Structures are given as structure tokens and as C-alpha cells.
Backbone:
């Protein structure tokens, strides 16, 4: 099998960065996320490929937090589209975990299926290579296995990295895209037979079976009053979630020209469903809270046959009020 020593990691990233934008897991001050390797400063940043996960998921590589869509000019009564900003730059997400890669699959469902294709998402997605990092030691907030994710066999991966010791990683090619990338750094790989670790047991296990069907009859259940009471509707759960995809579209204009852009939004905010006439179908925090978890656990399943949660555990970790989707699933099962 092909392997590389950890001491060669930066040389590999340097080589890959010559032909693509390479996003790697980093600690940048108090932040952790996937950042462009070309911005890496060893005096201030730390590569954290060995970390179980970073706080900010890599979904923004294919679905940016803010993206310009098109610019326009007004000529008399006509509006002329001046430029469409479809980004075709090649990208590599290096070290993506199985839960986050599964989330990309769910974004594919939203933006590329059921009779609709989002051109902006499609261009980025088609030109992105995924180098996944297999997980053998689940964290205390991880429950991806319960949500149908195999942490050691990441789906959609073009290449899978497997940490076999403190010494290095196995480099396992899965697709033609992976073969092309491998050719770029072949001189940094070596052939060696190594012993791979075994997947350790998960601390958290969730029984999702039957939840979507059961929720159909629980819309008015009093549990939503109790479960939503701690929620501050801060929206942090939606911004660090690898599958959330709500967005708003705005326009910036000056004189006879301008541009339209879209940016992430959150279903936890009152303004998200505020209508022009003043009516709001989800006026209260309870209604917004309920909608979030119905979307995650019922509505998405009804449309695509899978829950909109990959068990990464980020929302459980960051919630300042202790709201946990794991506990909510357990409440639903017992309701």
C-alpha cells in the first residue's frame, strides 16, 4: 500500500497547492476550520490533520458563506446581466472527515437533484477533489455511525487517508480524480505494508429508526414547549452544521449598476420567515425550534430518504443552553 510519513505533509500540500486551492484543517487563533493552505503561516497557524474534527465544517468550500452571483447594468428599461460569477477554480479538501463528506452528499441532493440544478454550487462541486481522513477513534460527541455514516470508509472520497501510527498515513486511491492527484505527489509516497487500527466503540449511540414516521403525528405535542424553552435562537447550531443550507439573496446597487449575492441565513431567526406584509408563519421561538428539528429528522427524510444529520456532534458541543439533538431524538422515540 502507498504511505507517506507525517514529516512530508507540508511538502505534499505545497505540491498540491501549485495546481489547486487546497483547504486543510487548521487552528487559527481561537478558530478551527478548513483554510486555504496558501494562507498558512506557521508562526500563527497550526495544521491539525490529526484532530478528530474542526469547529467550522468545510461545506463553505462548495457552498460559500457569501458569494456573488451576477452583476448587472440598467440601460433604459432593460436590465443587462453583465457577468455571472460561476467559480470553476480547482479545489482540494484535504483531511475531510466522513461525517462532513456525507454532508456534501446531502448538499448534492438539495442543489443538484429533484429537477433543479444550482449552477453556482454545481461548478464548485464538479471541480472539487475530496481527500478524506478516516476516523478510528470516535469523540465523546460523535454519533455518525447511528446516522448511517461509516467513519472508516468515507463515501464520495477520491482518496482516503488512514493514520496507521504516529509515523504516517496510508494513501488509498478511490477514483480517477484521486489517481490524477496521486501522480502529482507520487515521489513523496512509498510502498509499505502497515497494520491499520480497528474502529473503537462510540460513546454515543442513537436509535433513529422510525423517528421520521413518528414525527408525523407529533406536530402539536407538548414536548416542543419543554424542549424549546432553553433555546436562545442564537443560530450558532445552524452556522456550524455541515448540512444546514438556508440562504438569503440580496442586491447591492448604485446608480444604474450593481450585483446580486447570496449569503447563509438561519431558520432560527425571526426575520427568516418574515413576510413583506408583516405576517410570520413562525413567529415564536418554539415554532422555529420545532421546524429546525422537523426538517432535520422528518421533512428531509420524506424528500430524500435520509435524515439531515450526519452525527458530527458540533451542535451538541457549541450550544450555550445544552440543547442536544441526541436527547431530542430520544424524547421523540419515547413520546
Residues:
Amino acid at each position: 500500500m502507498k504511505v507517506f510519513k507525517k514529516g512530508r505533509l507540508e511538502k505534499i500540500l505545497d505540491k498540491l497547492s501549485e495546481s489547486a486551492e487546497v483547504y486543510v484543517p487548521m487552528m487559527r487563533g481561537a478558530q478551527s476550520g478548513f483554510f486555504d493552505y496558501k494562507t498558512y503561516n506557521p508562526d500563527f497557524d497550526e495544521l491539525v490533520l490529526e484532530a478528530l474534527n474542526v469547529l467550522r465544517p468545510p461545506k463553505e468550500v462548495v457552498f460559500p458563506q457569501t458569494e456573488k452571483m451576477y452583476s448587472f447594468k440598467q440601460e433604459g428599461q432593460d436590465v443587462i446581466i453583465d457577468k455571472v460569477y460561476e467559480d470553476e477554480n480547482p479545489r482540494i479538501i484535504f483531511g475531510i472527515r466522513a461525517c462532513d463528506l456525507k454532508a456534501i452528499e446531502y448538499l448534492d441532493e438539495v442543489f443538484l437533484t429533484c429537477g433543479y440544478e444550482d449552477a453556482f454550487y454545481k461548478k464548485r462541486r464538479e471541480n472539487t477533489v475530496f481527500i478524506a481522513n478516516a476516523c478510528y477513534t470516535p469523540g465523546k460527541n460523535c454519533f455518525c455511525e447511528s446516522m448511517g455514516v461509516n467513519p472508516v470508509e468515507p463515501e464520495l472520497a477520491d482518496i482516503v487517508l488512514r493514520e496507521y501510527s504516529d509515523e504516517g498515513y496510508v494513501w488509498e486511491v478511490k477514483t480517477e480524480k484521486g489517481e490524477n492527484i496521486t501522480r502529482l505527489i507520487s515521489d513523496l509516497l512509498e510502498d509499505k505494508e502497515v497494520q491499520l487500527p480497528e474502529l473503537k466503540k462510540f460513546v454515543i449511540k442513537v436509535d433513529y429508526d422510525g423517528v421520521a414516521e413518528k414525527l408525523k403525528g407529533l406536530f402539536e405535542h407538548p414536548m416542543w414547549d419543554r424542549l424549546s424553552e432553553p433555546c436562545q435562537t442564537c443560530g450558532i447550531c445552524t452556522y456550524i452544521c455541515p448540512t444546514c443550507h438556508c440562504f438569503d439573496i440580496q442586491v447591492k446597487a448604485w446608480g444604474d449598476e450593481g450585483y446580486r449575492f447570496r449569503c447563509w441565513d438561519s431558520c432560527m431567526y425571526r426575520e427568516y420567515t418574515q413576510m413583506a406584509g408583516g405576517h410570520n408563519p413562525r413567529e415564536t421561538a418554539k415554532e422555529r425550534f420545532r421546524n429546525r428539528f422537523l426538517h432535520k429528522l422528518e421533512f428531509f427524510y420524506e424528500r430524500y430518504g435520509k435524515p439531515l444529520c450526519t452525527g458530527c456532534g458540533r451542535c451538541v458541543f457549541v450550544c450555550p443552553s445544552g440543547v442536544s439533538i441526541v436527547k431530542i431524538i430520544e424524547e421523540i422515540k419515547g413520546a
The chain has one domain: 2-334. The chain has ten helices and 13 strands.
